[in-house]
Amino acid sequence: MSDEQRVHVHRNHVQIAGLIGIAPLLRYTRGRAISTFTVHTLVDGEAEVHRCVAFDRLAERVQPLELGEHVEVTGKLHTYTRTDRLTREATSVVQIVCEEVTAL
What's the pLDDT tens digit per position in 25-78? Predict the structure, then answer.
């Protein structure tokens, strides 16, 4: 297998199309725009909820998207650990770090 083929086998890339579940919430942290929202898809007849995050200009661009709007999201998966403030229980969270969001 060539080096070029290995890069494609091991790349972190995701592309989904679905409906906005939670409309984008825009906030600024240390001067950087961050928008979080969810996209709902169907997998084998079951609803899946995908947590998405967009940064900078893209975060501002997704702000007008509304609940139920059909979108396509391209990006990469990112996993982080979150600790509950009350129970101190650690939970892994998987989200899509958006590179492109298109209204369909």
Answer: 999 999 999 999 999 999 899 999 999 999 999 999 999 999 999 999 999 999
The number of domains in the chain is 1
Give 102's strand partners. Answer: 72
CATH number at residue 56: 2.40.50.140
Q: What are phi and psi of 92, to 5 degrees?
A: -85, 135
Annotate the chain with three-state secondary structure.
CCHHHHHHHCCCCEEEEEEECCCCEEEEECCEEEEEEEEEEEECCEEEEEEEEEEHHHHHHHCCCCCCCEEEEEEEEEEEEEECCCCCCEEEEEEEEEEEEEEC
